[in-house]
Design brief:
mainly alpha
């Protein structure tokens, strides 16, 4: 009994330090490190924890067992989200419509290749696979994982100093966590995450997720 309690306390401290401590540290010292740089060392540490404390297998990262129904449903969600984002920028922030592609098309094309592979995939491993496996003792119910995933994913975006980025990523975090919960495919959620990122930077919302965006 004492051992289980000790494990829970340790996990709770680790959880707070990783998912709230590191973003707060970056937030308080903006010039110290760029947010994207922290993903690689965090991933290395996370893979060490996964291999040490669970039956994690590398092949889980490329698992793709997604039904046609789920593919079709998420395609509809992507289409609706694209129309919603486009409509919002067009009616409420028209001067930023397609700002990055208009200002620097090659940067946008490079981002469209780089972001899904490095940033989106890395974040999905951290906030979906790792969180669900490492803290299953703390999050025994499905809704607890979805909420914790969304909250931590949103809080990470405090480093962009704008509540809009945190609101959007909380909504996105709920969506990605639920999809991961349904499919157990980090690869599929990474693809979705990458598509949403490309759309966000394409339609004119990228300034909320890139501090020094070249526009």
């Amino acid at each position: 009994m004492r051992g289980a309690l000790k494990d829970r306390i340790y996990l709770a401290i680790e959880f707070v330090l990783l998912f709230f401590g590191i973003p707060t540290w970056i937030y308080l010292d903006q010039d110290f490190i760029h947010p994207i740089i922290i993903i690689l060392p965090v991933l290395v540490f996370i893979f060490f924890l996964l291999r040490r404390s669970s039956d994690f297998q590398w092949k889980e990262l490329i698992r793709w067992q997604v039904s046609r129904r789920i593919l079709f449903g998420n395609a509809i969600i992507i289409l609706l989200a694209a129309l919603l984002m486009l409509g919002y920028v067009y009616f409420f922030d028209r001067e930023n419509l397609f700002n990055l592609p208009r200002a620097n098309i090659w940067t946008y094309l490079g981002l469209s290749l780089f972001y899904p592979v490095v940033s989106a995939f890395g974040q999905e491993i951290i906030y979906r696979t790792f969180l669900s496996r490492r803290y299953s003792m703390m999050l025994p119910k499905g809704w607890q994982f979805v909420l914790a995933s969304a909250l931590t994913f949103s809080f990470m975006h405090i480093v962009y100093y704008d509540p809009v980025s945190m609101i959007l990523t909380f909504i996105g975090g709920l969506y990605f966590a639920r999809v991961y919960q349904q499919t157990r495919s980090v690869l599929f959620t990474s693809v979705l995450h990458g598509i949403f990122g490309i759309m966000i930077f394409g339609v004119g919302l990228g300034q909320y997720f890139w501090l020094d965006i070249p526009i």
